[in-house]
Structures are given as structure tokens and as C-alpha cells.
Design a protein that fits this description.
single chain, 5 helices, 70% helix, mainly alpha
């Protein structure tokens, strides 16, 4: 997940998705080892909240943009006949931006704001749940970096509106999560009772 920000090795977020799945698998293993289902359940619910947020954002965006896109394109390209089958003919047309008013752009600005707010709210919900999971794991393993990761994820999600700082904190949190996994000590096995 940490190297997923590198553009030439990551296509369509595949690296982050694989990393998130591996983290969920690890948390499932820890939940079974420590017999504490909350470690995995909270992480799973956080992942589901993130997926619901993305799907809901796409649905909202489509619901706001689709009814307005045809009118907008007809104002931008007055010579277009409005038939979607001739949309490829846009390449030969010159856009007439003088026909576009601020009222024509308002639905798209509204869609962008609603999508961003929806994603932001669900990102906060998801990170709250992940933080719970990582706090439980930190308490069981005595590795404080798990708790630190959960806190950084939450702060990063809250500050994601300030794009650079929030994204930077989320990226650093993934690095600290990897370090936390590598600093864990093997669990001592109990000698068999005779």
C-alpha cells in the first residue's frame, strides 16, 4: 500500500487493493490467534464503509451529472443535433464557450462538492473503524505502532480536505503499519501441560 502511490507501477489502484486485502488477511489471522474478533470485524466494517462510500459517490455523481450533461453539451456545441450516436463528431466541432453561463456549470460544481463530502464522511467512518481494530491489535501485541497508525489514519482522513497534508498522513500511516508488522515479536509458545 505504501508503494501504491508510484504512478508507473500502480494501475487503477491495484497495488492498494492487493495491499488492503493482505492487511485484512493478516488482521483475520491475528483475530483468530488472539481470539478477539473485533480486530478483524472492525477492519472489515471499515473496508465495507469505504466501498459503500465510493459506490454511493459514483451513484450520486451520475444522478446529478446525467440529467444535465446533454443540455450542457448542446450549449457548448450548438451545431450538435443532440443524438448520442453522433457524439464522435465532436472532434470536428469547435466549442462555443460564450454560450456557457455560470448557471450551466452549477450542477457539475454541486456534483463535485457532494461527491467529495460523501467520500470524506465515509473515509472518516472507515478510519474510525480501522483505528478501533488497530488499537485492539496494539493492546494484544504490545506494539504501540499499531495504535499510532490508527490515529494517523483518522487524522489523515479528517484532514483530507487539506489535500496535501491529509494524503501525506495517510501515506505515512501505511509506512508505519508496515513497520509495526515487522517489529512484532513471535508469540511465545506455552509448554505442553503434562
Amino acid at each position: 500500500m505504501f508503494i501504491g502511490v508510484i504512478p508507473y507501477i500502480n494501475y487503477f489502484g491495484i497495488i492498494e487493493i492487493v495491499g488492503a486485502i493482505l492487511v485484512l488477511v493478516a488482521l483475520h489471522g491475528f483475530a483468530q490467534t488472539y481470539k478477539e474478533s473485533g480486530i478483524f470485524d472492525n477492519a472489515l466494517y471499515g473496508t465495507i464503509a469505504g466501498i459503500v462510500g465510493v459506490v454511493l459517490s459514483v451513484v450520486i455523481g451520475i444522478a446529478i451529472i446525467l440529467p444535465n450533461i446533454k443540455d450542457f453539451l448542446m450549449r457548448l456545441y450548438p451545431s450538435w443535433n443532440g443524438s448520442w450516436s453522433t457524439i464522435t463528431s465532436f472532434s470536428g466541432m469547435t466549442p462555443n464557450t460564450s454560450n456557457i453561463t455560470f448557471d450551466d456549470v452549477i450542477p457539475f460544481i454541486t456534483a463535485a462538492i457532494v461527491i467529495l463530502v460523501t467520500l470524506w464522511v465515509f473515509a472518516i467512518i472507515a478510519t474510525i473503524l480501522f483505528r478501533r481494530s488497530l488499537k485492539q491489535l496494539s493492546a494484544r501485541t504490545n506494539v504501540g505502532l499499531f495504535s499510532t497508525t490508527g490515529l494517523l489514519l483518522l487524522i489523515g482522513a479528517v484532514l483530507i480536505i487539506a489535500f496535501g497534508l491529509g494524503l501525506l498522513l495517510l501515506w505515512i500511516a501505511t509506512l508505519i503499519l508496515a513497520i509495526a508488522f515487522f517489529t512484532m515479536k513471535p508469540q511465545e509458545t506455552q509448554p505442553p501441560t503434562t
